[in-house]
Design a protein that fits this description.
Layout (H helix, E strand, L loop, with lengths): L1 H32 L13 E7 L4 H12 L8 E8 L5 E8 L4 H9 L6 H10 L5 E6 L1 H9 L6 E6 L1 H7 L12 E8 L1 H11 L5 E6 L4 H10 L4 E6 L6 H8 L5 E3 L9 H14 L3 E3 L2 H6 L3 E4 L2 H16 L15 E5 L3 E4 L1 H6 L7 H10 L2
Parallel strand pairs: 1-2, 1-4, 4-5, 5-6, 6-12, 7-8, 7-9, 9-10, 10-11
Antiparallel strand pairs: 2-3, 11-13
Helix pairs in contact: 2-12, 7-14, 9-10
């Protein structure tokens, strides 16, 4: 009997240990099956995500919140660091949260709990470069700071316009051979935007665009995917010429499109396009919700939460070696993705004023995303 008790004391704990190991392995397998819930975790090695924040705008805050709420909470070694950058690009504070942190600790990510110097931040980034770490910059000011930071960990620049990206490419520090680099644009691809126009105005393929000289990268993408469309592009080099450009495109088109360029980013210029479209009875399409609220008919947009989910997936691609000369990379080897999925926003009042019977936003969203 004593021998039985002794064997029980030895065997049962060993069995329990093996069972715990097996359960951990199973949980790890489930995590791989549902990779979306385990993105940017360190796995067996220590690692984590460093998020650089510059402008504290509501979209950027929503993006950060989604990243934080969906990060992997199973890896005790995974880190989630938020680094605030000053206007000059220097790191001013870092809030660090372990992946097993409590809700109170998570809230400290937003408020900031400790300060590091630029030198300390750079050293920390370099120290974990080989341990499945990645840096993600949110917005243009953070992206400018990020490309100047030392370190070899992969870098993802998120929530940029196409023109933001084109401007950053001119920096000597933008692409280094020792660092994988990705760019997530905040606007849906031009193909999605054309799919929206086609879904709302089936059979009508005459599209007018007023652009500036800086709009060329956007126009190249639009022209590349607009096979079968009749595009009329007029240039407005300054505010005084905008009216003349609009008068040129209004008579010969079925709709107007506002690009995410200097016109689309200017409230006054956008309102001028909307006013001209309304006067001519032409619907105006774009790629941001503000345009729809101001009188545009519809827009294909990606919400900050959707962009955060896409950014996590891009982070995995970068850590697994994407970039260089693979699919989705540009001529300089940078992995570039337009925003997906797109969500359609509609101004129902404008639709009624134009006597358009339109599907609801959910059905239009399904149509737009079905063409990919």
């Amino acid at each position: 009997m004593n021998r039985v008790r002794t064997l029980s004391c030895i065997v049962l704990p060993m069995f329990a240990n093996h069972l715990r190991t097996l359960l951990r392995a199973l949980r790890a397998g489930v995590g791989l099956a549902f990779a979306g819930t385990a993105l940017l975790s360190g796995g067996a090695q220590a690692g984590g995500l460093t998020v650089l924040m510059g402008d504290e705008t509501p979209p950027h805050t929503e993006f950060l919140r989604q990243l934080r709420e969906t990060r992997d909470t199973r890896d005790p070694n995974g880190r989630f660091d938020v680094v605030r950058t000053s206007n000059g690009g220097a790191d001013v504070s870092t809030a660090s949260v372990a992946s097993t942190a409590t809700a109170d600790e998570e809230r400290s990510v937003v408020t900031g709990v400790r300060t590091r110097s630029v030198r300390a931040s750079a050293s920390a980034s370099s120290a974990v470069a080989v341990d499945n770490s990645i840096t993600m910059a949110v917005g243009l000011s953070a992206a400018r700071a990020a490309i100047e930071r030392p370190g070899q960990e992969p870098l993802l620049l998120a929530m940029l316009t196409r023109l933001d990206y084109e401007g950053l490419k001119a920096s000597p520090a933008f692409k280094r051979p020792d660092r994988r680099l990705g760019v997530l644009l905040r606007d849906p691809a031009m193909a999605d935007q054309l799919a929206l126009v086609d879904a709302v105005l089936p059979g009508k393929r005459r599209l007018g665009v007023v652009a500036t000289a800086e709009s060329e990268p956007l126009l190249r993408e639009l022209q590349r995917v607009a096979q079968g469309w009749a595009l009329q592009i007029e240039y407005a080099p300054d505010a005084k010429s905008l009216g003349a450009a609009l008068r040129a495109v209004l008579p010969r088109n079925d709709a107007l499109m506002v690009l995410s360029d200097l016109i689309g980013e200017s409230q006054a210029a956008t309102l001028a396009v909307l006013h001209a479209g309304a006067g001519a009875g032409l619907p105006v399409f774009g790629a941001n919700e503000g345009l729809v609220r101001s009188g545009g008919l519809a827009a294909a947009v990606s919400t900050p939460s959707q962009l955060a989910m896409q950014a996590r997936a891009m982070g995995l691609k970068l850590m697994s070696g994407a970039g260089g000369n693979g699919a989705g990379t540009d001529a300089s080897g940078v992995l570039v993705e337009a925003a997906t999925p797109a969500t359609v926003r509609v101004n129902a009042t404008v639709a009624r004023g134009l006597n358009l019977r339109m599907p609801d936003e959910r059905k239009l969203t399904d149509r737009v995303t079905a063409v990919r």
